[in-house]
Structure formats: structure tokens, C-alpha cells
Design the sequence.
């Protein structure tokens, strides 16, 4: 099973600042089949990034993803108040999907 | 547009059973692996089970193996999760999901299952 470890656990930043989230895999994720989600309380996960760096339809370009192999990064270039949420990384290359434990982004 | 709509959740007592359904539309259901994922209150996302296109391969998380059964009806574009011997630890929102190397992962809106005495 591929274990995904996200860091930091919580990020507290001001509007307009840059948020950088990390997701490290215990083994290489072939094909870079890594997705990033935003989840707000009471809502389903919202797909932001798939294939490590492709933005899902309708997602603003201030959200971006990068990385390959075992190290993946998700960036929000200019935080807005509505970006307050928990963000998860997810690998969907292996038969058994696994998820990171989440990073909570708080807007000051 | 891919749509996944779960149903069948609710409140049950420990030891009881429940069957979740997921109605798929907007894509060729019979050509995709399908997956169930759950999220316990205040917790992260957890893979539950998945199956291939014709049911010849099925995988389960250890905590549900032997109690839950994933199945599908390709003629009706339906995915199921039969859940037996439910415990409080199975309380969660259950999502059905479809992964694609081309478009990423699509999710349903989720269905709450509560197990409580």
C-alpha cells in the first residue's frame, strides 16, 4: 500500500499570501496519478488537480500542482478567504487507493 | 457530464445490515473500475472497496473484508455496497467514485450511514 504523508498539518496564512502543501509517497506513484481535493465542512471532496498537475474544469489558475515520483506539491498562489478548507492528496494509480491525512488551511 | 448519485444510507443498530446504491450516468459505466470511499465524522478519507469492470477483481480494506460486499449491475449502471454486521466504527459518509487517467476522479455527493444503539 502506498502511504501518503502530507505536511504541514495546519497552515495559517493571510489573504493574498502563497500556500504550499506537500505530499510525500512511500513509493513512486507511476504515471503521476495524484489528485488534490478541497473539502469544506459538510461537503464532498472537490477535485482541484489530477495527474499531479492538471487543473480540473472550472478551477481557478491560482491553484496548481507539481511533482513526480514520490514528492508532490500543491500551491495556492494568492489565498482568498473562501480557500479556508482541508486539502487532501490522493493516489489513484494502485488498485487500493490511498489518501493523505489532510492539511488544514486557515485564513487569518 | 459524469454523475454519481448514492442512496440507501440511514441509521441502523449495531449488527444490522444496509445496502448502498450508486447510480451512474454520463459515461460508459461498464468500462470503468468503481470504488467506495468513506469518511468518518471529523476524520479523513478512507478507501473501502473497489471492483473491476466485470467483477472478477474486488478489493477491500481489512476492516470490512468479510462483512461488506461490492457488486455492480452493468445493465442498469448501478454500483452497490452490501454492508453486514455493522458496528459504530462504520459510521461515516460513504462516497462512490470513478477514477480515470484522462479526467481524474469523479465523486458522488455522499450518503450518511449511522450505526448506533
Sequence:
Amino acid at each position: 500500500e502506498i502511504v501518503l504523508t502530507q505536511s504541514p498539518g495546519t497552515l495559517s496564512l493571510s489573504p493574498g499570501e502563497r500556500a504550499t502543501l506537500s505530499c510525500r509517497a512511500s513509493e513512486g506513484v507511476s504515471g503521476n496519478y495524484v489528485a488534490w481535493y478541497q473539502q469544506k465542512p459538510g461537503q464532498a471532496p472537490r477535485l482541484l488537480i489530477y495527474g499531479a498537475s492538471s487543473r480540473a474544469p472550472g478551477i481557478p489558475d491560482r491553484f496548481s500542482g507539481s511533482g513526480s515520483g514520490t514528492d508532490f506539491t500543491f500551491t495556492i498562489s494568492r489565498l482568498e478567504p473562501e480557500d479556508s478548507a482541508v486539502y487532501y492528496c490522493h493516489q489513484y494509480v494502485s488498485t487500493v487507493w490511498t489518501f493523505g491525512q489532510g492539511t488544514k488551511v486557515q485564513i487569518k | 457530464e459524469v454523475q454519481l448519485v448514492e442512496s440507501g444510507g440511514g441509521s441502523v443498530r449495531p449488527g444490522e445490515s444496509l445496502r448502498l446504491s450508486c447510480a451512474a450516468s454520463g459515461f460508459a459505466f461498464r468500462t470503468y473500475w468503481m470504488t467506495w470511499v468513506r469518511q468518518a465524522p471529523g476524520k479523513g478519507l478512507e478507501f473501502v472497496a473497489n471492483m473491476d469492470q466485470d467483477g472478477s477483481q474486488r478489493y477491500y480494506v481489512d476492516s470490512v473484508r468479510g462483512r461488506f460486499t461490492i457488486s455492480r449491475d452493468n445493465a442498469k449502471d448501478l454500483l452497490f455496497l452490501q454492508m453486514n454486521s455493522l458496528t459504530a466504527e462504520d459510521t461515516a459518509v460513504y462516497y462512490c467514485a470513478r477514477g480515470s487517467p484522462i479526467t481524474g476522479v469523479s465523486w458522488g455527493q455522499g450518503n450518511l450511514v449511522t450505526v448506533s444503539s
